């Protein structure tokens, strides 16, 4: 026989001497402490078992004692002891033949002890079993039944006392049947109600199921832990999968799982979660995503990556926006469990697709998710996805999405290189400085100030490294170039003192846009007047010690200017300089006589100038020939602006791009009245300026404060 209240038979083996029976895992009732028993549920289960035997099967059990009752892990009582079970209508019932041999007579009714078999056979089967059930009730509340006539009440509950007295009545006709016992108020207990409903849940309508789950959610903590785990949980899990009650059942399962230790959770709850993710019911999927933060820590990583992820990821592309939104929000909780391969491939691809979603809230949350995902991504993935993704967010028509993009950029700034900041990020932020949304405008200003401050610090760090004797981070300034801290280059960078380079050892080109090496300057006409105290030097040396950048460059008019560009074209106490039709910053002088020159590799880092190939000191320093002619007499020294004698000039090099003196008409030298030097391209290093008539402010920008956390509460809950 099979019944939920009967001990389940699994298998049996018979040998020559013994019979072995295998059952479900149980313990004898006598081995369970009384305070661990759920007595109402246990007695109610036995009533159902006896009713099934007596009423449905028409049999008598005949051996209902404590030794015939077993308890499962869930605390459920199971009836066994089938040795005397039979039908009293048989010709020779085993109960009549063996009852007095197998059972202690104190557990037998008076008519059996007296062997009044005619009375036994003339009464319904429940008459015998009602008596034995009464003795079991006595022993549960009072201990071992004494061997005496009559029963004392002992500790039997008042609600059950009247029923007990009728069960052990001497007159068989006064003993009640099991169906009558089911209506006793003693069994009006929450746990009994729960078991009754669970046993019939498959037959209940959906509104009834939902009402039951709602009631159970409010009272599940009052149920014994073993009963919740082994009785309620399996029934609710089965109802979740096949009963059509979806989210309410899932919420109940999650609540019961919170009280379990990790090993028990992994054994009993995790398999249910895996099956739930595979279900097509979207309401279950949304419920799982919303509750993911409550149980994700208890999910093993291999289970997440191998069994859950494929079903979870389907939510990113679901046709319902609610599912996409819930999946997007839940991915952040799932990140610690995902493998690097999934993070750097699947997740970033899904986020990129969601940035084009038709729902504005989903696009915004995709940007936030991308920003929070940055610390978990590899360098190659960041290079490929970070800047394009956040730049796209800055162009989103939805203001919160643009605002989220700015927040993501600020939080991710440590992962963005300075060149990318200068060439991609800052230009992308620019339009937001005049964004129609005030919050976006203010945050754009704050963000761009942070990035400019970072670039300024980076540039200062690069120049400081050069000043310390090493190349900068990007090799912007050649190693070994002395730094002059009395003057400044564009952006507040220190300038360099004159340094000689030969055609065989040219200066390396600058690779940093913030640190120019040599800036070529060309001019067609110059009007200049200067006194002896002028701070500007255009060739040679002046009284203030500013020097001409000469040497092996040999470029006529190559100078280091010490005045800021703002003084050019203006009059002051020390100098006046006017330029016209100028393409650069420095005046051009007449060209020098032709000389052999060596091109710096075609398109070189200093503007493609052609320099003398063998010149030692350049055009304007004294060489050995001049010293021999003038006898090293300073009084006979030529003016620094005076060209060298023609005898010193070299033959033109075939590769030289310099125009010979014969091809240029002589120009009036306004500086000294001497014959004009030959005109040629001039190359100058300007200071404190970036272009003619403009200057870079050196006033420090007040740094913006990085947000300590993502502040999306003002809009995020609306979507």
Automatic annotation (TrEMBL):
Name of the featured protein: Protein kinase domain-containing protein
GO molecular function: ATP binding; protein kinase activity
Region span, Disordered: 474-519, 569-719
Ranges occupied by HEAT repeats: 425-459
Ranges of Polar residues composition bias in the record: 629-640, 684-700
Organism: Synchytrium microbalum
Record domain Protein kinase: where: 1-187
Sequence ranges of Low complexity compositional bias: 571-582, 650-668
Pfam families membership: Cnd1
